[in-house]
Amino acid sequence: KMTQQMRDLQLAQARKPPGPSSPNAAKRLYRNLSGKFRVNYTSFDEGSLVGRGEKEKLRKSYLFQSNAALFEAVELQDLDRVQDLLKQYSPEELDLNTPNSEGLLPLDIAIMTNNAPIARALLQAGAKESPHFVSLESRSLHLSTLVREAEQRVNELMAQVVNEAPNADCSEKEKQLKAWEWRFRLYKRMKAGFEHARVPDAPTSVHLSVASSSSVHVTFSEPLSVNSAVVTKYKVEWSCSPTFSPPLGEAVIDKLKNLHFTIQGLVSGTAYYVRVSAYNMKGWGPPQASVPPFAIPSSDAGLSPREYDGRAPRRKGQAEALDHLLGQVKTVHQHCICHEPCKNQPQSRKHSVSKSLKHLFHPSSKFLKTLKRGLYLTAIFYKDDNILVTHEDQIPVVEIDDTYSCLLMQDFLWFTKVSCMWDEILWLRQCVTVSQSSCSCILQTRFKMLLAISQMQGLLGIQDLGQVFFEPVKDKQGNILIVTLKEVKTNQTFESVRWVPICKLQSSRKSVSSPDEPTALDMLLMSIQDKLSYHQRSSHALSPGLYLGYLKLCSAVDQIRVLVPEQLPNILCHVKIRSNPNISREEWEWLQKMVNVEEPVPAEPEADTSQNSLFQELQVAIKELMTLVNIPLQEAKDFRLYSQEVLDFGDQVSFLLLLPPSDDVCTAPGQNNPYTPRSGFLTLPLQIFELGEER
């Protein structure tokens, strides 16, 4: 006799569209999904749908198919398909935490078949275990029921196939039999996986540090054992007693992207003991005490090492002082007698932003089509894979100076600083106009730069031209292009805008350009993707934490350049030390002793202390950083830690600096550098790097 659960299963299946009848059918379902449903449903021709109700019905059909495909991919243990579906759909669209007709979730199937990679992928996406399994007994009973009923169904179908004469109906029964035999084997494997599993081992690398005057920060790693079931959550406990009797509090962490937790609301000056335990489908494992075993939030926690030494934070009041200074300069300039003629000049080039970009398509626009010998400014506005062009399908270009033969680096660096004041261009023009009586060539060039900026702003109707690319584009004909880049957000709207796919613009330009001697515009279009990637990556931010940075400079005749990673060019080469960005007073004092010690290998700090944790973390970070920048580990003994301060980059990001030997910090022109970093690095002018870090 079928149980009530199996009858509910049959009713549910009767209401649902027919599912796959075998593993091969499941694969066919996934292939169909790949071809038909793995696109956003809004890309279909909605004009062919009748009413909103039909659109919603079609949408739900797509999402149901994606949910079914996820279950089948997990059951078939196909990691690539699972990852593809998780990227294509949101957890809500996949119904990631809605049980199927058997009362199972995708995560349940993954952990009970002991498929750790799929389980981790699901956990990263926010998957949960089924709420039906409130105890070990309920999970065991549910699995036994699934196995028993699947076996019963197999026996029933086998008897029908044996007793019936061959016909179309019999062929359908054989397909059902194969599907149920496969499902029977799946349930038996899940049941065996559950029975042989054991509780997880204790977490590893449990480190405790002070985060503020009322909080401590704990980080930990997964258990080392690979024989137990997949860990699905962790528990952090804290107490004022080393025996945790009584406990003061606990927190369950089921979001496993970052294994750390900050305990807040603590009393300053009180010692807090912390331990962490892991959980899997068999229950909670043993706890692991932190190292050090306790931490004491103190009134000086959260202070910078400069403040430990009685010095004010480096950036304290700097922004306010600079704003005040700029205001004073403007006030003096406005009352200057020689400035009066400039104030009365008609602002013929000043355009309202409300005019938007319509000048792009005005026949009398003064954008250039071709380049002669000279210095030019171009503005790249992009959205996704499209780029903004003029009515003649050209990138906006204006002339700066047609007599300028070579771009001096100091003029270019001055231009990059001007990019921080796009809204003040008119005022800057007036300032430079006042000073033109000196007839300085430098001032003449910079005044022309300001005129070109005003012209570009006026023609586009946009004040903010974006970020200056870190080097100009030069060709053999003597043309020099200064490039600005700005991403247009999808929620911004513009009137009369012509967007052209980048590939189309490149193709049309290629057909008219000379492959032997490409112009600066040709070179710009050929490298446009690299420049857009640089612009996007330069705005990325680091996650909170303490980092070890590597400072390496190289000098040329007119500039100093700094080594940075291509993936994050606004930050020095770096590796992460830990998630807590703060350094305690005890850790800082130990660092000072370690840096100033005369012995080549300083003594290790005592075990079970925060200093020892930092020592071990630094060792790992230095080895990782040396490998990253392609420097042999034996050379690390000659490197130094910058001991004057910890660099604070804001947003809970701080840096310790690793310096080469004093003679190698900056490589001079012609000096051989025996250790060349691997691919993935570039050198930026120091001033460009400073501006990028400020942004």
UniProtKB/TrEMBL annotation:
Residues 1-25 are annotated as: Disordered. One of its GO terms (cellular component) is spindle. Coiled coil: none annotated. Pfam families: fn3. SUPFAM superfamilies: Ankyrin repeat (SSF48403), Fibronectin type III (SSF49265). Gene3D superfamilies: Ankyrin repeat-containing domain, Immunoglobulins. Residues 202-299 form the Fibronectin type-III domain. One of its GO terms (biological process) is establishment of mitotic spindle orientation. This is Ankyrin repeat and fibronectin type-III domain-containing protein 1. It comes from Acanthisitta chloris (rifleman).
